Amino acid sequence: RLVIGRELVGSVPYYASHETALEVHNLLTRPVTGVTMTTPRRLKGKQVMGIDYRFVYCKLEKIWGTQLVWVSDSEQMIVSDPERTMLDCLARPDLCGGVSEVAAALRMGKQELDWEKLSIYAKRFDPQSAVKRLGFLIELLELSTSTTYEKLLDIIGPSYTPLDPLLSDEGSYVSRWKLILNIDPEELKKAAST
Questions:
Q1: Rounded CA gap, 27 and 133, in Å?
Q2: Which end is more exposed in the chain, N or C (fewer Cβ atoms within 10 Å of the end residue's Cβ)?
């Protein structure tokens, strides 16, 4: 199914992203049946042999943080690396099962993630809402040193954004991360530990 996704994109740049990349990097707690591809080519979603293929538009200059990965005995494809995957998922939690799923992925990848690379990627990543969510989760789940989230604090802007954009905008405000806390932090900790 991943190779079919690559072929549906055609000859333009692409990378497997969001929950598909989480699956490739073994950072998911649930099965995935669809495929998500990011590309500068505007494509409508398709269904092939019962599998849903989603295509996320991205400008060509924003395709970075990828790696070539074996997806079968004879096929390779380009997938976002684990650090880029986290940022993509936090920018679009709707494409990976929500913020709680990303919290679980961060905890599962704690030893493998390159936290320095993640903070470098955050400086060039847009939207900033993903960086705010990332910093909050790293701090909440005590996943890295304070140096990592201090670097993230230096680059976030003053506007507030919901922690989970899939939920209502109601909740307490976390001024440190400029987030509207619309998920109970204890629920996030539980989700991350399963």
A1: 18
A2: C
Helix, strand, coil fractions of the chain, as percent rounded to 5: 40, 20, 40
Q: What is the dihedral of CA 5, 90, 161, 53, to 10 degrees?
A: 20
* 14 has a pLDDT exceeding 90: yes
Please tell me the predicted confidence (pLDDT) of residue 159: 95
Contact residues for 169 (Cβ-Cβ < 8 A; gap 6+): 162, 180, 182
Whole-angstrom Cα distance, residue 40 to residue 138?
Answer: 30
CA angle 13–99–168, rounded 5-degree value: 115
Q: How far apart are CA 70 and CA 192, in angstroms?
A: 28
Give the Cα separation of 61 and 23 in Å (integer). Answer: 25
* Backbone φ, ψ for residue 79 (5° rounding): -130, 145
Q: Is 118 helix (H, G, I), strand (E, B) or coil?
A: helix
Whether the pLDDT of residue 29 is over 80: the answer is yes
Inter-CA distances, 140 with 96, 106, 150, Å: 20, 11, 13
